[in-house]
Amino acid sequence: MNSALQAEDWQRLSALFDELAELPVAAREARLAALQPPELAARLARMLASLPQGDGDDLTATAGIEGFGDRLADALAEPADAAPAPQAGDRLGAWCLAELLGEGGMGQVWRAERADGLYQGEAAIKLLREDLASSGLAARFARERALLGRLTHPGIARLLDAGEQQGRAFLVLEYVFGRTLSDHVRENALPLAARVKLLLEVARAVEHAHAQLIVHRDLKPSNVMVDDAGQTKLLDFGIAGLLDDSGHQSDHQLTQLAGRRLTPAYAAPEQITGEAVGVASDIYSLGVMLYELASGELPFGRRGLSRTALEHAVLHGQVRRIKRATGAPSAAGAGSNEAGPGRPPDAERAAGDLEAVAAKAMRRNPSERYASVGSFIDDLEHWLAQRPVSVRAEDWRHRARLWARRNAALALSGGLVFAALSLGLAVSLWQRREAQAAARESEQVTGYLAELLGAASPDQNGGRQPTVVELLDRKRQELATRFNDQPEVKDRVFDTLIKTYFALQRFDVAAPLAEQRLAHARRSFGDDDSRAEDAAVTLAGIHTAVAGGQPIIDLLAPLLPRWDRRYGPLSEKSHNLRLQLLVAYGRLGRIADAEREFALAQRSNDAIYANNAFEHARFATYENVLRVYEGRLLDAERSLEAARPFWNPKQPERIRPALVLERNLVFVRWRLARDTAAQATARSDDLIRRWDAMARSGNHASTLMRQLLATYLQQLGEFGPALAQLQQAQADTETAGADDAVTGQLRHIQLLEARVLAAGHADAAAVTAAAEALVKLDGAPLIGDVRRADGLLTLGHVALAPGAGAAGQALARDIDQRLDTLRPLLAQARNQSSRIALFKGRLAGTPMAWLDATRERVAYFDALPEPQGLPEWSARLQQACALRASGQAWAEALERAERARPVHLATLTLAPHPLADIAARLPAGLPPDCDWRF
Q1: Which of 218, 491, 495, 635 is catalytic?
Q2: For 464-511, what is each residue's pLDDT tens digit?
Q3: Is the pLDDT score of 611 beyond 70?
Q4: Residue 300 sits in the same domain as residue 220
């Protein structure tokens, strides 16, 4: 048997076989004679020798020719050590293969079940052919997983994981139950409007991905599933990008191995010819899907044609008018992979405007198509609302130009008649211009983003592939001088950039852009305009994401009454504003205001999610926030426990919010000192593992887990393990490139304090680092009042630690000045304000100043309805020590401290807690603060 075919020759051989098989014998032999290298030509000749020599085109007949199987096996000989074929029950990472769903040129698709016990669920696993997996794709899968993880749109089936096992690369995708788009509309005989609404859902999902700079490249009805509720879900988003990461497909190794990953009936001409692929290619495919849904037929060719014939039709044919499409059922073929959607019962409605929309999307020249999916969406919405579409007149002119080229003489003689008719059309065209202006806005917006995508070529970046953030930063800098005479366009560009930076968790960039957009919208459209309101909500959302307080209230409190009047107090729009205000009020200690918004939000939650038990249960997240701020930890625990039945959803889109519910319960348990150090670490590790399974290591949720675990371990006196957790969090975020200027700044400060606590003192280097961190904190305006106070108090802990010396005292005074500016804003946030009092008392350095500070801190706990675990116990011990140091009666204070001691304290750590022996040591005298570390 011949040696194995080299991977780099496989696709060329396959494509040449398809090409030459359809040629007459003489032309085939001439093509073979010119083919290089000779070895490849010889292999191809052996394959072609098995073809019938007549004029028939039934390629399936070759299978019956004597010796064909042996000759084909000889031509395509595989390595002797090929891996065994996948079988049901095989394990791939956390998944177990359950059922083979299909097989194609790229490999196999399996239904798989989660097998590691973390949660119950199903996924679709795509196993690449072994020869493709061996081409080094696994490393690319790992890089791209984080990129595609941004696609969290409800209309997109998510890529859950990617990797390589035993030499075989695989992709793990969300498993979607339902029927394909074509099957759904055909079997339900849906009318045209219903079909267009379904395509609108698909287009909105594509638009979301384009905003994340991700192009699909293989849009077609079989990649759209419709579930039992009638909701669409787009499959394989970004998989084409994973398998071909350059704009020029022919230059990419996998393209050489497996061929261009496209379906000719739906592929744009530039995909077929191997030219650059971008937003316009997806728009073309959407246009084909629109035409097919409207007519029941493909715009070029017909089902059952060979791939070569379909490609020729797409490149050289003319789109048939919808009224001429027969809609007769046709057999599925290689070009479509579909039985087709069938003709809608009211197909005649598609003639005219809807046909013009499809034609615009399917222009052969990419620059003549819609500049964005948003423009395509606008016209579909106009059609549904029976308003003029932007392209109808443009489509008429385009068709007229094509006709004139074919019929020059008739066009000349008809010119005078056309001129007379034009006068009568003037008024109608003027009305249409209004709709066209709106469409031009949309085109300019994503034309601007299309420039961004085009700038990704290594040729324009010194041979280096720029990152998404680099491309965005470049366009962001240009925005100051762009669209200044087009306020509507500028507002939409602002909105798109802000959402993209937000999805990238670059809040430090998203917030200034959102402020610019808000100022622009108010200046251009007025405070009450919907665009100004939307800008305010967007900016408030960013402040919510970074745990802001007063800015959220300033933005949303004036808006909420207007929305209550406009949409109703129980509407979803008002509900979402109310939830943000509830959290902001609670964070600032404005409990009465938070309770008011909570009561209304609870009513609207009951009304909105009456038939959605999972979403209704998610409200426990917000009840937990309020109860914690109120000091009602047991009520918070009860509300979160009630949501426990929803912790393990099968639907992938619910896993993240379910994890939030579970995580919040863990945090409450730590506040109540219910977990030992080992238990807390195990819970954290388990949650982090599951967060990382959905996103990259170093994601915000996993990092937050480590930070809060470190705080709990420090309260237990486990300073070394706490430091290890923060060091791991820092390493993960740096590796992931997620060390942003907001959350990253506070994490750096917490890590600095952890090093000092673990060492037992602060040296000169620690004080210098704290001073540098203070400067950076000053330069991070997005950090809100409460979190800024937390950061300042943490730095103050370092500055006043033993060994900090005079430099530490000087730094502490600088910190004190900054806290003075914050204290009025935090007057009702008694947790923060009482901690500020402790810092000031310690800085003053006298027993009486410290005693007064401890009294304020204890008064905060006295006002709460329930014990508050380790923080309350340590605060009461500090008061007893302060009383003893100042010569005052301290026994009663010590007794109250002992009553606040967590019941199971002795079992929470292996070694005794550092504060456990205070009662025994206090009669002999102790420092006023007992132990500076607490």
Answers
A1: 218
A2: 545 656 666 766 777 777 777 788 888 888 888 888 888 777 888 899
A3: yes
A4: yes
How far apart are alpha carbons 432 and 192 in whole angstroms?
23
DSSP tag of 576: H
Residue 156 DSSP class: B
Tokens of 12: 């060329």
Distances 452 to 3, 472, 795 between C-alpha atoms, Å: 46, 7, 41
Total of domains in the chain: 7
Distance in angstroms (rounded) separating the CA atoms of residues 452 and 279: 11
pLDDT digits (tens, 9 = 90+) for 13-38: 555 665 566 566 666 777 677 776 77
Distance separating alpha carbons of residues 98 and 110, to the nearest angstrom: 7
User: Under a CB-based contact definition with an 8 Å cutoff, are residues 581 and 597 in contact?
Assistant: yes
7 Cβ contact list (under 8 Å, min separation 6): 131, 134, 135, 257
Question: What's the confidence (pLDDT) of residue 258?
Answer: 34
Residues 254 and 345 placed together within one structural domain of the fold: yes
CA 460/CA 466 separation, integer angstroms: 9
The DSSP code sequence of 287-343 is HHHHHHHHHSS-SSS-TT--HHHHHHHHHH--PPPGGG---------TTT-S-----
Among the candidates 116, 150, 174, a domain finishes at 174
Digit-coded pLDDT (tens) for 94-107:
889 999 988 765 67
Residue finishing a domain among 75, 110, 131: 75
Task: Indicate the range of 156-170, 451-465, 529-543, 816-830 predicted with least confidence.
Answer: 451-465
Q: What pLDDT does residue 735 have?
A: 84
* Residue appearing with tokens 């140091």: 885
As a whole number of angstroms, the distance between CA 818 and CA 816 comes to 5
Helix or strand (DSSP H, E) at 892 = helix 891-900
- Helix segments in 588-699, DSSP class H: 591-608, 613-617, 620-630, 633-642, 652-671, 677-694
Please tell me the distance from the alpha carbon of residue 455 to that of residue 449, in angstroms, as a whole number.
10
Q: Residue 176 corresponds to which tokens in the numbers above?
A: 């979607």
**Tell me, what amino acid is at 34?**
A
**Can you tell me whether residue 218 is helix, strand or coil?**
coil
The SS3 assignment for 808 reads helix
CB half-sphere exposure, 176, CA atoms < 13 A: 27
- Beta strands 91-92 and 107-114: pairing type? unpaired
* pLDDT 10s digits, 356-406: 999 999 999 998 999 889 889 989 999 998 888 888 655 444 444 444 444
Give the helix, strand, coil percentages of the chain, each rounded to 5: 65, 5, 30
Is residue 218 flagged as an active site residue? Answer: yes
Q: Are residues 205 and 350 in the same domain?
A: yes
DSSP per-residue codes, 361-419: HT-SSGGGS-SSHHHHHHHHHHHHTT---TTHHHHHHHHHHHHHHH-HHHHHHTHHHHH
CB 124 within 8 A of CB 134: no
Domain with 125 in it: what CATH number? 3.30.200.20
Give the position of tokens 């009224």: 323
Q: Which of 385, 524, 500, 367 has its CA nearest to residue 443?
A: 367
User: For tokens 């324009």, what's the residue?
Assistant: 460
Same domain for 644 and 774, yes or no, is no
For residue 815, give the amino acid letter.
I
Side-chain-side CA neighbours of residue 191 (13 Å):
5
Tokens 């950061």 sit at which residue? Answer: 791
Burial of 38 (C-beta count, 10 Å sphere; 0-12/13-18/19+): exposed
Instruction: Give CA–CA dist 747/289, Å, rounded.
Output: 49
Phi, psi of 115, deg, nearest 5? -125, 0
Buried b (16+ CB within 10 A) or exposed e, 317-351: eebbebeebebeebeebbbbbbbbbbbbeebebbe
873 domain residue, yes or no: yes
DSSP H or E run through 159:
strand 159-165
